[in-house]
Amino acid sequence: MNYLLATAKTKTVREVKADKKSSNIVGEHLQDKGTLPNLSTSDIRDVANTLGSLAPVGTIKTLEVFKQNEMLDTLNNTLLAVGKDELTVGEFTIKRTRDPQGKKASLQLFKKTEERGTQELVKFDLTKTEEGIKKEVAKINISDYDINQVKFITQNASKLNLEQIFEGGQTAHVQQPPAQQPQQIQSAGDIPVKVHPYIAQQWAEMTKKGGLAWGGALNQDNEEILQKLKDNDGKLAIADQREMYLKIMTHKTNEAQRLGESTIEFTPLKYIMQDLQQWRAEEIKQQFTPTQVVSFPQKQTVAAATPQGKSKEIEM
Questions:
Q1: pLDDT of 61-91, one tens digit each?
Q2: How far apart are CA 174 and CA 132, in angstroms?
Q3: Smallest Cα–Cα separation from 66: which of 75, 57, 53?
Q4: b or e along 188-213 (b: 16 or more beta carbons within 10 Å of the residue's beta carbon)?
Q5: Labelling 84: which of 1, 264, 305, 315 has CA 20 to 30 A away?
Q6: pLDDT digits (tens, 9 = 90+) for 21-44
């Protein structure tokens, strides 16, 4: 599939620049690994991390659905509404499985088509612990279109109740992850990560020492980079860090030539990018699909007045 065709056709100048940077990163990845994620089978988080701003339109929107527990809510409510562990509606099958000990469970969404057969689109793994239930998103390979189709199936579903998955009767309360600072994330390429130590050190030394070779094109967009660092609490998108690295290498080369030196010391870009993409994968998981603990409230007994003036116990 042409990744460029999978992105928006109308873009701003800023988006075009971001795409150009991402294209270079993807090209380097392809040269190193020899392959790109398969959009039909790969986890959308891996697609977002590898392709950055070249990831298909709607990637961030889809991740937001999982960030808000919306898909877990949708799948679970459907099975609760029909009182079954498996339900097939059209192309979609929602399935719930539990181990005999009742300690582990999973919710899965499958889609069956003539072209691709049966594919697993979504999988949630849940594990009972002493603290509650640990929820983890094991797989995401679903489009925005399919999400809307599944939502249509469960329009009248009731409120999320994870304990029902384990055949209990008590309402579960999902502890949401700490609130993130609002960021203008339009694509996966915008997700900032911590600045690589090598880049941070070399950039600080370069800007401090300056030199005849420091100026002109090397100063271009530097103010924008500093502003991004400030806006994102010291973090920066991978494409911007790559640009910083290339400026560092240009400066090193110019200085070596000026001083008549034949060699320069540096850390290869390949290893820098491996670290940055590993950190971005962690950021994507933490921001959109973090592992969460679901705790259950203690039972409370209160006396409620009855029309006859008597009282009876109600469990809340």
A1: 888 888 888 888 888 888 888 888 998 888 8
A2: 10
A3: 75
A4: bbbbbbbbbeebbebbeebeeeeeeb
A5: 315
A6: 667 777 776 777 677 888 888 899
What's the pTM? 0.69
Of how many residues is the chain composed?
316
CA distance 143 to 151: 12
Cα gap 14→142, rounded to integer Å: 28
In angstroms, how far is the first alpha carbon of the chain from the final one?
A: 53
Those residues with Cβ within 8 angstroms of residue 195's Cβ, 6 or more apart along the chain or in another chain: 229, 234, 235, 236, 241
Taking the C-alpha atoms of residue 148 and residue 163, their distance in angstroms, rounded to an integer, is: 25
Secondary structure element (H or E) that encloses residue 310, with its range: none
Q: What backbone phi and psi angles, to 5 degrees, belong to 225?
A: -65, -45
Residue among 105, 217, 120, 109 at smallest CA distance from 165: 105
What's the helix, strand, coil split of the chain in %, to 5? 45, 20, 35
Q: b/e per residue, 260-286, with b = 16+ CB within 10 A?
A: eeeeeeeeeeeebbebbbebbbebbbe
List the Cα angle 256/259/263 in 5-degree steps. 35
